Amino acid sequence: MMNKELMTAKILEAKVDKGMTWEALAESIGMSPVFTTSVCFGMNSFSEDKAFALCETLGLDKDVAQALQDFPKKSWDGGVPQDPLIYRLYEVVGVYGDTMKALIHEKFGDGIMSAIDFTMDIEKEENPKGDRVVVTMNGKFLPYKAW
Amino acid sequence: MMNKELMTAKILEAKVDKGMTWEALAESIGMSPVFTTSVCFGMNSFSEDKAFALCETLGLDKDVAQALQDFPKKSWDGGVPQDPLIYRLYEVVGVYGDTMKALIHEKFGDGIMSAIDFTMDIEKEENPKGDRVVVTMNGKFLPYKAW
Amino acid sequence: MMNKELMTAKILEAKVDKGMTWEALAESIGMSPVFTTSVCFGMNSFSEDKAFALCETLGLDKDVAQALQDFPKKSWDGGVPQDPLIYRLYEVVGVYGDTMKALIHEKFGDGIMSAIDFTMDIEKEENPKGDRVVVTMNGKFLPYKAW
Amino acid sequence: MMNKELMTAKILEAKVDKGMTWEALAESIGMSPVFTTSVCFGMNSFSEDKAFALCETLGLDKDVAQALQDFPKKSWDGGVPQDPLIYRLYEVVGVYGDTMKALIHEKFGDGIMSAIDFTMDIEKEENPKGDRVVVTMNGKFLPYKAW
Amino acid sequence: MMNKELMTAKILEAKVDKGMTWEALAESIGMSPVFTTSVCFGMNSFSEDKAFALCETLGLDKDVAQALQDFPKKSWDGGVPQDPLIYRLYEVVGVYGDTMKALIHEKFGDGIMSAIDFTMDIEKEENPKGDRVVVTMNGKFLPYKAW
Amino acid sequence: MMNKELMTAKILEAKVDKGMTWEALAESIGMSPVFTTSVCFGMNSFSEDKAFALCETLGLDKDVAQALQDFPKKSWDGGVPQDPLIYRLYEVVGVYGDTMKALIHEKFGDGIMSAIDFTMDIEKEENPKGDRVVVTMNGKFLPYKAW
Amino acid sequence: MMNKELMTAKILEAKVDKGMTWEALAESIGMSPVFTTSVCFGMNSFSEDKAFALCETLGLDKDVAQALQDFPKKSWDGGVPQDPLIYRLYEVVGVYGDTMKALIHEKFGDGIMSAIDFTMDIEKEENPKGDRVVVTMNGKFLPYKAW
Amino acid sequence: MMNKELMTAKILEAKVDKGMTWEALAESIGMSPVFTTSVCFGMNSFSEDKAFALCETLGLDKDVAQALQDFPKKSWDGGVPQDPLIYRLYEVVGVYGDTMKALIHEKFGDGIMSAIDFTMDIEKEENPKGDRVVVTMNGKFLPYKAW
Amino acid sequence: MMNKELMTAKILEAKVDKGMTWEALAESIGMSPVFTTSVCFGMNSFSEDKAFALCETLGLDKDVAQALQDFPKKSWDGGVPQDPLIYRLYEVVGVYGDTMKALIHEKFGDGIMSAIDFTMDIEKEENPKGDRVVVTMNGKFLPYKAW
Amino acid sequence: MMNKELMTAKILEAKVDKGMTWEALAESIGMSPVFTTSVCFGMNSFSEDKAFALCETLGLDKDVAQALQDFPKKSWDGGVPQDPLIYRLYEVVGVYGDTMKALIHEKFGDGIMSAIDFTMDIEKEENPKGDRVVVTMNGKFLPYKAW
């Protein structure tokens, strides 16, 4: 059985060889770029058909297709990320966490935004003063159950 | 000099007394709900006119207006948040951090999304299967300088 | 505004004065013991009618009723609990976490058990070799969304 | 001597080859699915007959049977788990720990629920609004000894 | 309701005033010194009669007697103790933990020594080369349940 | 030079092959089971004659005998142990640390129990309600020097 | 694909063989010593022409040139550095952090010094009492956006 | 005796009342802005004459002057700073620490930059693309002693 | 009962009022400066006569004398000290710990230097290139007991 | 290029083969035992002549001599050491840190003892009650610079 680390390494190698972007790869199998990339990094899993479609696009064999379908055990580095791009996202959660909580409670009541029934989209907004990254997170509101 | 903790307490008390939402409070001074709430929680600062406008809306005196203009020293609880709503946001950064990094690099080159030249918006998307929280983050792309 | 710590202290005091158990208190307002206790400890919130019902039972005033309705910011002590009763629960998660993950994935596919759309029940099972604690957790299965 | 990591790897491989579920594997040797899976993950040990029965079912040799009988040194990743399924269980302990302590004390007196004289069962509850995971923990109550 | 910290302070003050040792205090109520001291430090609880007996010995009122009966939430300082006397005990667990595990498993099978059904005794062994501290721990062996 | 990890592995393998217990092994060289086991786990060192005696008993060569004499650098896993048997010992130190300190100070004055001039013994106490583990620690009292 | 660790090892080896300093290496490709060194240590990336220029200078092949262009995931050892040279820099941030914050706010308003649009220079200042290290950091001021 | 926290609070209050900047305050006593601010924040100490000069400028009494001369025990918040301005400085140490070490060793040999025989200067560099913060650190090189 | 914090505060205040150094204070009671200072900081305890002698010298009452005799529970800030003077000592332990272990083992065999039967002396060595601090630690060698 | 770990391993092996002590090794090259051992453990570096002298004494080749001259990146295990000999030194810093700070400040003014311009000596003091370890640290006093 191929593990997720080897799966990721094989995909990255084939992706460079084919000269494909993550966007093109995602489009070729009819999935979003964020979800597709997260599966290839071992943080989500594909259904059988998507797994085989991706392997076909990249010319990879069925061991990779199987690994893409395995349900991952998610983990990441330490409690506080270090890479500046990822740290800034962590900082946003720290600085705006209470604010987001207050506004979501105001609009929806007591509950949370699901990180499971969740999608994300990343776009480039062109701007003469410097282009901007636009991240859109969309998660189902889950109200706390009272019983 | 009034510190930020006391400032926040006085604003929360007046807000309840006036029966105002964060959205209405923000609208009354012509600022966004996210930024307004974050200033009231002591995580950002207002210009003088916005600080006085907010105090006028809430019937608070100039000590609060002064505290709203002070530049905050930002801090939050521990490295890993515990409240479920805030933890889910942290989890999103953990699960999707490498994915976001890969896609931002693909679209923009080596650099980061600024958390300083940054705006955020939180909306409610009505949905018969359960309403959804939509968080939009918009940050300037900052390319790494080579020298 | 009364904070959750003071609310809890007032409830505990009144509960001792009235000589009521958590079970009796919960029954008096038509809610479950686990949920009722967690609200009184500041970890969940009541609807307005349940908050006033509980205050009526205990002879507490409307400040407490208001505090019971406030949406809590949940937090607990450190990362690893120390009290032996709570530590044993933490140990169960450590020892059986991967096992629970494997069996839930086998029955349901890739996803999680919700801790939000969630109920818990604690019962005593009489046993001549020593009575047993029976904890039943019931959470909605949330499948990971692919997009 | 075969260590637990290799034992687990061999079992997982044989299990996939045989196309067996954890439930079927447990049933074939007359043990519960939770305990069987936890032994295979190296978190508990089997008696000699169960160890050999499992190896017979899976066509594994006696090195694996020996490793299944070794008493494990239990350990898990870090203090706060990261995988969302396991984290939610940790969160339940954090949010409801004091509540569970209060209710167990109310029903049993000062003591704990054993994590050693302990069984667990995981079931699927079908529900038109979304199936639910039902986890039942059953542990002997151990009263604190006074001396 | 008196909390455990105040209870301990009142007992320590009265103990100094009466000029009593922990041993004498324990003997006066017919309990062991270790258990008695641990209750007075808020780490265990007394039955009603022992609580009142201790308060009688020390001339303390019934608030203290009530607090002595409350079931404690146990906690201690950090993960690694700093006081040299307590650190040495921690070091013994670190240095001899695997050894104790191996010998207990050899004598009893897979299981643990209970810290709940547990007693401890501390004696002075006179020795011309320097007196020695003798600590005896006695805990019920709890075998892991297979199911 | 053979390191301690390899030394331990060779001893464990030979011990299984010879079918010897730690107790029998210790007896064969005229040392206590706790000390012998701790040396074999790399946490203490033997004198030359004991090292060779143990290797003779187990049929191991002089590389192992040399490694048994090397002075170890002691270390263990993390700050808070995870294996339940070892964790319970840690919990005892947490719960009873202040109590042990108070009673040792009462009997001996200001000082500590040595963990270096120290012996430990582990016995099985048969009991119809369940056998009990008896751990006896015996350490020299070291008074703080005033100068 | 060559990873950053191997890239750094190959560069260090070639640099020793050629007997070149970091300064000379930087000068040979028309970049600053700090940036050049940081790229070779895997903390920044080069444009294609600089990557090939460096490989030409050092006689390295195109695998290294490719690795020099890869966008790095930045990370470093733990939260508090241990090497004395690096620790002293950390200590400066600890001791003077609030001071730097106060003076930057006084000169620029609320905002930060960018660590992305950032350059650094290290010079030797000769001094009869002992030469001095002069570190100059130059980062764009980024004002907090209000919205 | 006045402690450093109270000293800082009194200085900040007087500084606001007088409407003085840190720069003006430093100039009034003939010291640098960075050192002066760090003393007022309790991270360094003044000689007697500078302490009295500062108190004269701000109209503060001799308790403050005494506190300014006390040798501080330096400490800061946690291991990883959270305020974005201070975090960026920490990030610079993380990202460029090995680079700075390599270049300082290349210029000076094995040793460190002193954080004690150390000065710092912060300037504003006007720039049409956005003003820049220029931080200059100047520390004595201390070679490792061989003996 | 006076606690150690208040005891230290009273001693520091009286010491300033009397204009005495730690050295003079120690000499006045016939004890060493290091031990005397450590007792006054609450890290060691005095015999009755020394406690009263110190209070006589400083004009303090018997509450302080009693507190000086109490056996302290020693603790310090965090795991890694921050004040530069104390950090340098920690760094010495980190950098030279294995070296000290090797040399002590070479001279004495397997064992440790006691931190309990221990004295310390701090002297100033005048030197034209800069005066030097000379710290002499003297601890009894404790050999590991084999049993 | 040989790294420090391999260098240390080769030296330890040759030292055992030659049957030399650290003291004899140090004497053979005219350096102190503490410094020599620390270089061999990779915590300091030698000048070229000392590096070659040591290799000649031990019969090692020039790869080792080169590695002995490399400037080390110092690091050690975790924040709190575990080996009892090293932990006792850490404990001394914790218990006596504030005392050492007070006495050094009293003798020298505000500043620190250098850990860079620093020497250490370890001696055996024979004593009928048990031999004693005498550690002498000698570091240049560095006064804080005011500017």
TrEMBL record, chains A, B, C, D, E, F, G, H, I, J:
Keyword Lyase attached: yes
InterPro entries according to UniProt: Cyanase, Cyanate_lyase_C, Cyanate_lyase_C_sf, CYNS_N, Lambda_DNA-bd_dom_sf
Name of the featured protein: Cyanate hydratase
Entry-linked Pfam families: Cyanate_lyase (PF02560), CYNS_N (PF21291)
Catalytic activity: cyanate + hydrogencarbonate + 3 H(+) = NH4(+) + 2 CO2
Listed Gene3D superfamilies: Cyanate lyase, C-terminal domain (3.30.1160.10), lambda repressor-like DNA-binding domains (1.10.260.40)
Active site positions: R88, E91, S114
EC number of this enzyme: 4.2.1.104
Originating species: Marinobacter panjinensis
Family of the protein in this entry: Belongs to the cyanase family.
Job of this protein: Catalyzes the reaction of cyanate with bicarbonate to produce ammonia and carbon dioxide.
Keyword line: Lyase
Record SMART domains: Cyanate_lyase
Domain Cyanate lyase C-terminal: 75-147
Gene Ontology molecular function: any one: DNA binding
Domain of life: Bacteria
